[in-house]
Specification:
By secondary structure, this protein is an alpha+beta fold. The protein has two domains: 115 residues, no CATH class; 127 residues, Cytochrome P460 (Chalcone isomerase, 3-Layer(bba) Sandwich), CATH 3.50.70. Helix content is 35%, strand content 16%. It contains nine helices and six strands, in the order αααααααββαββββα. Helix 5 packs antiparallel against helix 7. The protein is globular and about 80 Å long. About 2% of the residues have low confidence.
Amino acid sequence: MKIANKRSLTGIIAGIAVLATAAFSFTTTVADHPPVTGDLDAPEAVKQIFQHACYDCHSNTGQVQWFDRLPGVASFVSRDIREARKHLNFSEWDRLSAAEKEGALWQAYNMINSGIMPLPAYKTLHRNATVSASELATLRNYLNTRRKAVPAVAGKTVTDTLTTPATLPVAATGIRFMPEFRTWQVMSTTSRFDNTTMRVMFANPIAMQAIKNKQIHPWPDGAIIAKVVWEKERDSEGYIHPGKFLNVQYMVRDQQRYKDTGGWGYAKFETPALKPYGTVLTAQTCASCHKAAANTGGIFDLSTFN
Protein backbone atom coordinates (compact mmCIF):
# COMPACT_ATOMS: atom_id res chain seq x y z
CA MET A 1 0.00 0.00 0.00
CA LYS A 2 2.79 2.40 0.87
CA ILE A 3 4.41 1.80 -2.53
CA ALA A 4 1.08 2.38 -4.30
CA ASN A 5 0.53 5.57 -2.34
CA LYS A 6 3.99 6.80 -3.28
CA ARG A 7 3.34 6.09 -6.93
CA SER A 8 -0.01 7.85 -6.73
CA LEU A 9 1.60 10.86 -5.06
CA THR A 10 4.36 10.92 -7.70
CA GLY A 11 1.76 10.86 -10.46
CA ILE A 12 -0.17 13.72 -8.87
CA ILE A 13 2.97 15.80 -8.52
CA ALA A 14 3.95 15.11 -12.14
CA GLY A 15 0.47 16.05 -13.30
CA ILE A 16 0.58 19.30 -11.34
CA ALA A 17 3.99 20.07 -12.84
CA VAL A 18 2.67 19.51 -16.37
CA LEU A 19 -0.38 21.67 -15.73
CA ALA A 20 1.76 24.39 -14.18
CA THR A 21 4.12 24.35 -17.17
CA ALA A 22 1.21 24.53 -19.61
CA ALA A 23 -0.45 27.33 -17.66
CA PHE A 24 2.81 29.26 -17.58
CA SER A 25 3.27 28.79 -21.31
CA PHE A 26 -0.18 30.20 -22.04
CA THR A 27 0.62 33.33 -20.04
CA THR A 28 4.10 33.75 -21.51
CA THR A 29 4.55 36.57 -23.99
CA VAL A 30 5.63 35.06 -27.30
CA ALA A 31 6.11 38.40 -29.05
CA ASP A 32 6.18 41.97 -27.80
CA HIS A 33 4.18 44.76 -29.42
CA PRO A 34 6.32 47.87 -29.94
CA PRO A 35 4.53 51.04 -31.07
CA VAL A 36 3.45 51.32 -34.69
CA THR A 37 5.50 54.18 -36.12
CA GLY A 38 3.91 54.10 -39.57
CA ASP A 39 1.67 51.45 -41.09
CA LEU A 40 1.56 50.30 -44.71
CA ASP A 41 -0.04 52.94 -46.92
CA ALA A 42 -2.07 51.05 -49.53
CA PRO A 43 -5.69 50.59 -50.66
CA GLU A 44 -7.78 48.77 -48.06
CA ALA A 45 -8.24 45.66 -50.23
CA VAL A 46 -4.47 45.36 -50.65
CA LYS A 47 -3.76 46.06 -47.02
CA GLN A 48 -6.21 43.39 -45.85
CA ILE A 49 -4.36 40.74 -47.87
CA PHE A 50 -1.05 41.61 -46.25
CA GLN A 51 -2.73 41.77 -42.84
CA HIS A 52 -4.08 38.24 -42.89
CA ALA A 53 -1.10 36.73 -44.74
CA CYS A 54 1.88 38.60 -43.28
CA TYR A 55 1.11 40.78 -40.28
CA ASP A 56 1.27 38.07 -37.60
CA CYS A 57 5.03 37.88 -38.14
CA HIS A 58 5.88 40.99 -40.16
CA SER A 59 4.31 43.66 -37.94
CA ASN A 60 4.12 44.83 -34.34
CA THR A 61 0.40 44.03 -34.16
CA GLY A 62 0.41 40.31 -34.96
CA GLN A 63 -1.59 37.86 -32.89
CA VAL A 64 -0.44 34.36 -31.95
CA GLN A 65 -2.72 31.35 -31.55
CA TRP A 66 -3.01 29.18 -28.45
CA PHE A 67 -0.88 26.45 -29.99
CA ASP A 68 1.88 29.00 -30.66
CA ARG A 69 2.30 29.23 -26.86
CA LEU A 70 2.80 25.52 -26.26
CA PRO A 71 6.00 24.41 -24.50
CA GLY A 72 8.73 23.78 -27.03
CA VAL A 73 6.88 25.79 -29.65
CA ALA A 74 6.75 29.29 -28.18
CA SER A 75 10.51 29.81 -28.40
CA PHE A 76 10.55 28.94 -32.11
CA VAL A 77 7.59 31.20 -32.83
CA SER A 78 9.23 34.05 -30.94
CA ARG A 79 12.45 33.60 -32.90
CA ASP A 80 10.65 33.50 -36.26
CA ILE A 81 8.74 36.71 -35.46
CA ARG A 82 11.93 38.54 -34.49
CA GLU A 83 13.65 37.45 -37.70
CA ALA A 84 10.61 38.34 -39.82
CA ARG A 85 10.44 41.85 -38.38
CA LYS A 86 14.13 42.40 -39.08
CA HIS A 87 13.53 41.61 -42.74
CA LEU A 88 10.24 43.50 -43.19
CA ASN A 89 8.07 45.24 -40.61
CA PHE A 90 4.85 46.75 -41.93
CA SER A 91 4.45 48.63 -38.63
CA GLU A 92 7.63 50.60 -39.38
CA TRP A 93 6.80 51.35 -43.00
CA ASP A 94 7.68 55.01 -42.52
CA ARG A 95 11.32 54.10 -41.92
CA LEU A 96 11.75 52.90 -45.50
CA SER A 97 12.68 55.15 -48.40
CA ALA A 98 10.38 55.35 -51.42
CA ALA A 99 12.64 52.98 -53.35
CA GLU A 100 12.81 50.54 -50.43
CA LYS A 101 9.01 50.51 -50.17
CA GLU A 102 8.65 49.66 -53.85
CA GLY A 103 11.24 46.93 -53.58
CA ALA A 104 9.61 45.49 -50.44
CA LEU A 105 6.18 45.32 -52.09
CA TRP A 106 7.51 43.56 -55.19
CA GLN A 107 9.57 41.18 -53.08
CA ALA A 108 6.55 40.35 -50.92
CA TYR A 109 4.50 39.67 -54.05
CA ASN A 110 7.23 37.48 -55.55
CA MET A 111 7.60 35.47 -52.34
CA ILE A 112 3.83 34.89 -52.15
CA ASN A 113 3.53 34.12 -55.86
CA SER A 114 6.35 31.57 -55.68
CA GLY A 115 4.82 29.84 -52.65
CA ILE A 116 7.81 30.61 -50.43
CA MET A 117 5.74 32.88 -48.19
CA PRO A 118 3.80 32.46 -46.04
CA LEU A 119 5.85 29.45 -45.03
CA PRO A 120 4.06 26.20 -46.01
CA ALA A 121 4.38 24.85 -42.44
CA TYR A 122 2.88 28.07 -41.12
CA LYS A 123 -0.08 27.92 -43.52
CA THR A 124 -0.84 24.37 -42.42
CA LEU A 125 -1.76 25.61 -38.94
CA HIS A 126 -2.81 29.15 -39.88
CA ARG A 127 -5.27 28.63 -42.72
CA ASN A 128 -6.25 32.30 -42.77
CA ALA A 129 -2.73 33.12 -43.99
CA THR A 130 -3.33 31.49 -47.38
CA VAL A 131 -3.49 33.96 -50.29
CA SER A 132 -6.04 33.03 -52.94
CA ALA A 133 -5.56 33.40 -56.70
CA SER A 134 -7.94 36.36 -56.77
CA GLU A 135 -6.06 38.06 -53.93
CA LEU A 136 -2.78 37.47 -55.73
CA ALA A 137 -4.29 39.14 -58.81
CA THR A 138 -5.34 42.07 -56.64
CA LEU A 139 -1.76 42.52 -55.46
CA ARG A 140 -0.42 42.25 -59.01
CA ASN A 141 -2.91 44.78 -60.37
CA TYR A 142 -2.04 47.20 -57.58
CA LEU A 143 1.69 46.89 -58.24
CA ASN A 144 1.11 47.44 -61.95
CA THR A 145 -0.48 50.81 -61.16
CA ARG A 146 2.72 51.80 -59.37
CA ARG A 147 5.00 51.21 -62.33
CA LYS A 148 7.25 54.14 -63.03
CA ALA A 149 7.21 55.69 -66.46
CA VAL A 150 10.43 55.39 -68.43
CA PRO A 151 11.79 58.91 -68.97
CA ALA A 152 12.03 60.24 -72.50
CA VAL A 153 15.28 61.77 -73.71
CA ALA A 154 15.85 64.22 -76.51
CA GLY A 155 17.98 62.84 -79.32
CA LYS A 156 20.47 60.05 -78.80
CA THR A 157 22.34 59.43 -75.60
CA VAL A 158 25.57 57.62 -75.01
CA THR A 159 25.55 54.94 -72.34
CA ASP A 160 28.22 55.41 -69.68
CA THR A 161 31.44 53.67 -70.60
CA LEU A 162 32.49 51.00 -68.12
CA THR A 163 36.26 50.89 -67.80
CA THR A 164 38.27 48.41 -65.80
CA PRO A 165 40.36 50.01 -63.04
CA ALA A 166 44.01 49.10 -62.66
CA THR A 167 43.33 47.57 -59.23
CA LEU A 168 40.23 45.39 -59.23
CA PRO A 169 37.84 46.31 -56.39
CA VAL A 170 36.76 43.64 -53.90
CA ALA A 171 33.36 43.43 -52.20
CA ALA A 172 32.86 42.81 -48.47
CA THR A 173 32.08 39.16 -49.26
CA GLY A 174 35.56 38.72 -50.74
CA ILE A 175 34.34 38.64 -54.34
CA ARG A 176 36.39 40.75 -56.72
CA PHE A 177 35.17 42.57 -59.77
CA MET A 178 35.58 40.20 -62.74
CA PRO A 179 35.96 42.09 -66.04
CA GLU A 180 36.08 38.76 -67.89
CA PHE A 181 32.28 38.60 -67.70
CA ARG A 182 32.28 40.46 -71.03
CA THR A 183 33.48 37.25 -72.70
CA TRP A 184 30.75 35.09 -71.13
CA GLN A 185 27.55 34.07 -72.87
CA VAL A 186 24.41 36.14 -72.36
CA MET A 187 21.86 33.96 -70.55
CA SER A 188 18.98 36.40 -70.10
CA THR A 189 17.77 39.98 -70.28
CA THR A 190 15.43 41.32 -67.63
CA SER A 191 13.37 44.40 -66.83
CA ARG A 192 12.11 45.67 -63.46
CA PHE A 193 8.90 47.64 -63.34
CA ASP A 194 9.36 49.08 -59.85
CA ASN A 195 12.54 51.05 -60.56
CA THR A 196 12.71 51.32 -64.38
CA THR A 197 15.95 49.41 -64.74
CA MET A 198 17.00 46.89 -67.36
CA ARG A 199 19.64 44.18 -67.03
CA VAL A 200 21.73 41.80 -69.09
CA MET A 201 22.76 38.59 -67.35
CA PHE A 202 25.93 36.69 -68.26
CA ALA A 203 26.86 33.11 -67.27
CA ASN A 204 30.42 31.85 -67.04
CA PRO A 205 31.19 28.53 -68.82
CA ILE A 206 30.45 26.42 -65.73
CA ALA A 207 27.09 28.09 -65.19
CA MET A 208 26.16 27.93 -68.86
CA GLN A 209 26.97 24.23 -69.03
CA ALA A 210 24.80 23.62 -65.96
CA ILE A 211 21.93 25.45 -67.69
CA LYS A 212 22.32 23.41 -70.85
CA ASN A 213 22.44 20.15 -68.89
CA LYS A 214 19.60 21.26 -66.59
CA GLN A 215 21.78 20.53 -63.58
CA ILE A 216 20.92 23.43 -61.31
CA HIS A 217 19.57 21.60 -58.26
CA PRO A 218 22.05 22.38 -56.94
CA TRP A 219 24.20 24.57 -59.16
CA PRO A 220 27.80 23.33 -59.36
CA ASP A 221 30.53 25.10 -57.43
CA GLY A 222 32.36 27.56 -59.66
CA ALA A 223 29.22 28.76 -61.44
CA ILE A 224 29.13 32.56 -61.68
CA ILE A 225 26.33 34.84 -62.84
CA ALA A 226 27.01 38.50 -63.69
CA LYS A 227 24.27 41.08 -64.06
CA VAL A 228 24.83 44.51 -65.62
CA VAL A 229 22.21 47.11 -64.70
CA TRP A 230 21.21 50.34 -66.47
CA GLU A 231 18.42 52.82 -66.12
CA LYS A 232 15.91 52.55 -68.97
CA GLU A 233 15.44 55.46 -71.37
CA ARG A 234 12.86 56.03 -74.08
CA ASP A 235 14.04 57.85 -77.19
CA SER A 236 12.07 60.18 -79.46
CA GLU A 237 10.86 57.22 -81.53
CA GLY A 238 9.54 55.37 -78.48
CA TYR A 239 12.25 52.73 -78.28
CA ILE A 240 13.51 51.64 -74.86
CA HIS A 241 17.28 51.28 -74.50
CA PRO A 242 19.96 51.32 -71.80
CA GLY A 243 20.64 54.72 -70.33
CA LYS A 244 22.75 55.53 -67.29
CA PHE A 245 24.96 52.69 -66.09
CA LEU A 246 24.17 51.74 -62.47
CA ASN A 247 26.07 48.66 -61.37
CA VAL A 248 27.44 45.17 -61.98
CA GLN A 249 26.27 42.36 -59.70
CA TYR A 250 27.76 38.91 -59.20
CA MET A 251 26.52 35.63 -57.77
CA VAL A 252 29.30 33.13 -57.11
CA ARG A 253 28.51 29.49 -56.29
CA ASP A 254 30.52 27.89 -53.48
CA GLN A 255 28.37 25.73 -51.21
CA GLN A 256 30.89 25.55 -48.38
CA ARG A 257 32.24 29.11 -48.38
CA TYR A 258 28.79 30.69 -48.67
CA LYS A 259 26.76 28.13 -46.73
CA ASP A 260 25.19 30.91 -44.62
CA THR A 261 23.66 32.48 -47.74
CA GLY A 262 22.34 29.41 -49.49
CA GLY A 263 25.59 28.48 -51.20
CA TRP A 264 25.77 31.72 -53.20
CA GLY A 265 28.10 34.65 -52.61
CA TYR A 266 26.86 38.12 -53.57
CA ALA A 267 28.65 41.27 -54.69
CA LYS A 268 27.68 44.59 -56.26
CA PHE A 269 29.89 47.29 -57.78
CA GLU A 270 28.19 50.64 -58.34
CA THR A 271 28.69 53.56 -60.74
CA PRO A 272 31.37 53.61 -63.46
CA ALA A 273 33.88 53.86 -60.58
CA LEU A 274 32.79 50.33 -59.54
CA LYS A 275 32.53 51.11 -55.84
CA PRO A 276 31.83 47.99 -53.73
CA TYR A 277 28.35 48.21 -52.22
CA GLY A 278 27.09 46.98 -48.85
CA THR A 279 28.47 44.78 -46.09
CA VAL A 280 28.53 41.08 -45.31
CA LEU A 281 25.04 41.51 -43.84
CA THR A 282 23.81 42.80 -47.21
CA ALA A 283 24.42 39.33 -48.62
CA GLN A 284 21.91 37.95 -46.10
CA THR A 285 19.27 40.27 -47.54
CA CYS A 286 20.14 39.15 -51.06
CA ALA A 287 19.89 35.49 -50.08
CA SER A 288 16.50 36.05 -48.48
CA CYS A 289 15.16 37.71 -51.62
CA HIS A 290 16.51 34.97 -53.89
CA LYS A 291 14.56 32.31 -51.99
CA ALA A 292 11.67 33.31 -54.22
CA ALA A 293 13.60 31.79 -57.14
CA ALA A 294 14.03 28.39 -55.47
CA ASN A 295 12.62 26.60 -58.53
CA THR A 296 15.65 27.71 -60.55
CA GLY A 297 18.27 27.27 -57.84
CA GLY A 298 18.09 30.84 -56.59
CA ILE A 299 18.54 32.57 -59.96
CA PHE A 300 15.87 34.97 -61.16
CA ASP A 301 14.80 35.15 -64.80
CA LEU A 302 16.44 31.97 -65.98
CA SER A 303 14.67 32.20 -69.35
CA THR A 304 17.13 29.98 -71.21
CA PHE A 305 16.25 27.09 -68.90
CA ASN A 306 12.65 26.91 -70.12
